[in-house]
Design goal:
The complex is a heterodimer of chains A (281) and B (439). Chain A has 281 residues and is mainly alpha-helical. Chain A contains 12 helices and 2 strands, in the order αααααααααααββα. Chain A has a two-stranded antiparallel sheet with strand order 1-2. Chain A is flat. In chain B, strand 1, helix 2 and strand 2 form a beta-alpha-beta unit. The chains are: A mainly alpha (281), B alpha/beta (439). Chains A and B meet through helix 2, helix 4, helix 6, helix 7 and helix 9 of A and helix 1, helix 3 and helix 12 of B. Chain A: Belongs to the binding-protein-dependent transport system permease family.
């Protein structure tokens, strides 16, 4: 009797869970479906029948999107910017995280708080000083400067996640390495880095998306058409009084495609990494 | 192994750095070769894929081919928040473009005092051939408390009521209402045939703002907006509250689509184009959307009229809302930078440019010396021009005369709040308290 009750409760729980998950999946998929449908429509159809299937599939929107948003150039720029940001962040933040998680520094706590504080500064509050510095040192249209800005803004988060993860790694491996005569750099490169790969993948995904999607900094600091990233290309379809939503949606579909592929490739690592910071031995 | 890993890390870092600097290298190379080029930066709202933007870009190309030693960097943004972000950052970090645009009039004082906006009076006086702008439009940028003219009007046009004549006839309305009482009767008749009387999507708050602007000017005249700005009048004064009350009255009688506060301008525009709504209050920029039969099945039936006046206020019958958009020039420019910028400004607002903008894009530059080819110009635009000529007083938004920059959002949000339950008194109080707070 009790067993049947338990089974019934379990089945009910499963139904509840699946209903919840289906509802959530629908909630997240709706905007994507809307975007894909709209990418084949014109303005009148988008606003007249927003959720219907396109009456005719306007593939011309994709051609217009590719040319209008100057995608061939902007795409490569975005890739270069995002990859450089991810690589620099992975190297710098893993080093900092190693030091913070493993060394008994006198100022360790203060340093941790210092890095954490970086996460609490809203971007808009420091736009003007950043813009002033960029202007003063003539760094407009400089991709290195742009990448360094991204690195600076993502550093706190990356260090925080990696340090939490590294704290959870068993110390006995390091101790064994020390006995074998390994130095700090060797421990970092041969033990900590390989063990931290899931967490590095996780922060790298976030950092890649952050750099790929950022529109504010390139808007302010890049005005050379040859150097603009893809996010700025999307703005080409926005007019003061009315936008070409069909091509805009097509451009969004193309733009979103790359991060989705990257996410799918690293999905497993990301998911294990997300939970990783929480587990401690 | 150790060496390999170190090498990998070093290479990874270098790849990152060279990947970036590779691109920058080409840029800095071009900047070296452009070293002597005069850079002219533009930050206007002329962006997007419309015909007027095409003409704007053509003129820039023409300027560049005329001056190979000049490079025009067009940073114009159609998207409002991108534009504002860029403008605010440029203003506060001292990197203002050569030609730009700031919304409003009274709020320009501070920028003028800091020498950021050029007084264009000397330029206008020196070139009588070019100085053929409609006086009312030019004087709009004579900022209270400052001598001079601080912008060149690059766009004008009556904000009119575009209406579907066939639907009006079907509802038994013979001609467009000229007075407020006739207007209300027309709304009731349109409702009776299940048509949304006024296509208003207040999610894009300017639509509600523009409706109140129209009512305000017809009820109190355009000068009253200046009095609000100079604080000689309060938003809580009975007449101002009454002007807000008229918006509420329209809402209560069901003049707008249901849930208007949550609908955007694009959606209501589509409703009007499809003949599901009787009227829409908008400017000349939408004329091209009303003439293309593919997008606008109701194209043949669309006509334009002035917003109705109040029976008890005949003196304000021709006090009209018109759009006037400016080009401002950086006040810090000198030498060749200044000369080239002024030349480009003149090309963008010349007689030839005005003719092309009007005939090809239904976009009006307020000049007095342009003869339009009636065969080429859209009849709706011609009618709009004709109606605009009868204006005795013109103004854009009421908040244009307010020195408080936040008034754009404050006034529009308060007006929208009346569509979701606030009373006119509460809306007025909401706006006035923002002003009182700033004192």
């Amino acid at each position: 009797m009790n067993h049947t009750n338990y089974k019934g409760r379990k089945a009910l729980g499963k139904v509840g869970l699946f209903t919840f998950l289906t509802a959530m999946a629908l909630m997240f998929i709706c905007p994507m479906v809307f975007t894909v449908f709209s990418s084949f429509k014109d303005n009148t159809e988008i606003f007249g029948d927003p959720f219907s299937l396109p009456k005719t599939f306007r593939f011309s929107n994709y051609v217009e999107a590719w040319n209008g948003a100057n995608m061939s150039t902007y795409f490569i720029n975005s890739l270069v910017i995002s990859i450089a940001t991810v690589v620099i962040l992975a190297v710098v933040s893993s080093m900092a995280a190693y030091a913070l998680s493993r060394f008994n520094l006198k100022c360790g706590k203060a340093l941790t708080i210092f890095f954490l504080a970086g996460m609490m500064i809203p971007i808009h509050t420091i736009l003007v000083p950043v813009a002033y510095i960029i202007g003063k040192f003539n760094l407009k249209n400089n991709l290195v400067a742009l990448v360094l800005i991204y690195v600076a803004f993502s550093l706190s988060f990356s260090i925080y996640v990696l340090a939490r993860f590294m704290k959870g790694i068993n110390r006995s491996l390091e101790e064994a390495a020390i006995i074998d005569g390994a130095g700090y750099f060797q421990i970092y490169t041969r033990i900590m880095l390989p063990l931290t790969v899931p967490a590095i993948s996780t922060v790298s995904i976030f950092n890649f998306l952050g750099a790929w999607n950022n529109i504010l900094f390139p808007l302010l600091f890049i005005n050379d058409d040859k150097l603009k990233p893809i996010a700025l290309g999307l703005l080409n379809f926005n007019g003061e009084r009315g936008s070409a939503y069909g091509p805009l949606m097509a451009a969004i579909v193309i733009t979103v495609f790359i991060p989705m592929v990257i996410y799918l490739l690293f999905q497993e690592k990301v998911e294990s990494g997300l939970a990783a910071g929480a587990v401690k031995e | 192994m150790k060496r390999l890993i170190s090498l990998f890390l070093a290479v990874a870092l270098c790849v990152g750095m060279t990947a970036c600097s590779g691109s920058t290298g080409s840029q800095s190379g071009s900047s070296n070769s452009d070293g002597k080029k005069v850079e002219i930066r533009l930050l206007t709202r002329m962006a997007g894929t419309t015909k007027q933007v095409e003409i704007f870009k053509d003129i820039i190309k023409e300027f560049e081919s005329k001056h190979p030693d000049a490079k025009v960097i067009d940073e114009s943004q159609g998207d409002e928040s991108s534009f504002n972000n860029k403008l605010k950052t440029d203003l506060s970090s001292g990197t203002l473009p050569n030609i730009f645009r700031i919304q409003g009039v009274a709020n320009l004082g501070e920028y003028i005092d800091n020498g950021l906006i050029m007084d264009l009076d000397p330029v206008l006086k020196a070139d009588p051939e070019w100085n053929k702008f409609v006086p009312g439009a030019l004087s709009y940028y004579q900022v209270p408390g400052h001598n001079g003219t601080y912008a060149i009007p690059m766009e004008s046009g009556l904000i009119g009521v575009y209406y579907n004549e066939a639907l009006f006839k079907k509802a038994g309305i013979d001609s467009f209402p000229e007075t407020w009482s006739q207007f209300k009767t027309a709304i009731q008749k349109l409702k009776a045939i299940n048509v949304t009387p006024i296509a208003l999507g207040a999610k894009t708050t300017y639509m509600a703002g523009h409706l109140h602007d129209q009512i305000f000017y017809k009820w109190m005249g355009t000068e009253a907006a200046k009095k609000l700005g100079s604080r000689d009048m309060k938003w809580t004064d009975p007449d101002v509250v009454k002007s807000l009350g008229f918006v509420k009255e329209l809402n209560d009688m069901g003049a707008f689509p249901s849930g208007a506060a949550g609908i955007s301008d694009d959606i209501v525009l589509s409703q009007f184009q499809k003949g599901q709504a009787g009227m829409i209050i908008t400017g000349t920029w939408n004329i091209s959307n009303f003439t293309n039969k593919k997008d606008c099945p109701a194209a043949d039936d669309i006509k334009v009229a002035k917003f109705p006046s109040f029976d008890e206020k005949p003196q304000y019958k021709n006090e009209d809302m018109q759009v006037i958009s400016p080009y401002m020039v950086n006040g810090k420019l000198t030498g060749k930078d200044k000369d080239y910028t002024i030349e480009l400004l003149k090309m963008l607002t010349s007689k030839d440019a005005a003719k092309r903008f009007a005939e090809e894009a239904s976009f009006l530059i307020p000049r007095t010396d342009v003869t339009l080819d009636t065969q080429k110009v859209n009849p709706l635009l011609l009618k709009n021009v004709e109606l605009g000529k009868t204006s005795t007083g013109i103004a854009v938004d009421v908040f244009d005369f307010d020195p408080l920059a936040s008034m754009q959002d404050t006034t529009r949000n308060a007006i929208v709040s009346m569509l979701v339950g606030s009373s006119p008194e509460q809306a007025a109080q909401q706006i006035q308290s923002e002003i009182d707070k700033s004192k």
